[in-house]
Specification:
162 residues, two-stranded antiparallel ribbon, mainly alpha, single chain, Butyryl-CoA Dehydrogenase, subunit A, domain 3, 7 helices
Length: 162
């Protein structure tokens, strides 16, 4: 008997219901717009359902879904790169609107991997090991990538204060 392949629609639906808000926050952050982020999640789940037979159970089903959501968010972000960030996207964090300090524009300038790690850590509240699984990278790479993102944002904020 070989590895169990595929995922059921019920499994995908359960994860969708349980994790939708986290998926949407991360996708919205990646594309710079909450509504487009929700569209990315919807499309990602449609892809997951149609491709559920390709899930090989080598990692977690949630990790597989996160990769699909991130790929769809990246695709939509690159399709919308010429568009300005939507001022309607406000995500409360620690009691403050997410862009109170102008971070959204600076975050948008980060490379894809840095943005993905940043959003998975702070918007999806994932631990480094889970982020590594989702992105298919080493835990040390997650740490280094997050540090590089913090450094770049800190430099941008310091330069803006001058």
């Amino acid at each position: 008997m070989g590895l169990r392949r595929g995922a059921s629609v019920a499994q995908l639906e359960a994860l969708y219901r349980e994790r939708y808000e986290r998926f949407a926050r991360v996708a919205g952050g990646m594309v710079g717009d909450g509504e487009t982020g929700r569209d990315a999640v919807q499309h990602a789940f449609a892809v997951a359902i149609s491709e559920r037979h390709t899930f090989r159970a080598e990692g977690s089903l949630e990790g597989w879904l996160w990769r699909i959501v991130l790929n769809e968010a990246r695709r939509m972000a690159s399709a919308n790169r010429a568009l300005p960030l939507n001022d309607g996207y406000e995500q409360a964090t620690n009691g403050h609107p997410a862009d109170e300090y102008g971070l959204r524009a600076w975050i948008a300038t980060l490379p894809d991997r840095q943005r993905a790690v940043l959003f998975l850590r702070y918007q999806a509240d994932m631990q480094y090991g889970r982020i590594a699984e989702v992105l298919g990278i080493d835990v040390g790479t997650v740490s280094a990538t997050l540090s590089a993102a913090h450094t770049k944002l800190r430099k941008a904020m310091t330069a803006a204060d001058r």
